[in-house]
Write a structure and sequence with these properties.
With about 50 residues, the protein is mostly helical. It has two helices and two strands; from the N terminus they run αββα. Helix 1 packs antiparallel against helix 2. The longest helix has 16 residues. It starts with 7 loop residues before the first helix and ends with a helix. The mean pLDDT is about 75.
């Protein structure tokens, strides 16, 4: 499916998921945002939104 054909809600979920994945990055084995072991739960959930 082409991105242009996706519903706005799907695009919003893609954007939010990608933003979280960019922010919650691996920082020497810990999440750069929340400090949990990486990948943190937020990163795992965001991966499901992509």
């Amino acid at each position: 499916m082409d991105v242009k054909e996706r519903e706005p809600a799907t695009l919003l979920r893609l954007t939010d998921g990608n933003t979280v994945l960019n922010d919650h990055a691996d920082d020497a084995g810990l999440c750069a945002v929340c400090g949990s072991a990486w990948p943190c739960d937020t990163t795992l959930l965001a991966g499901d939104l992509r």
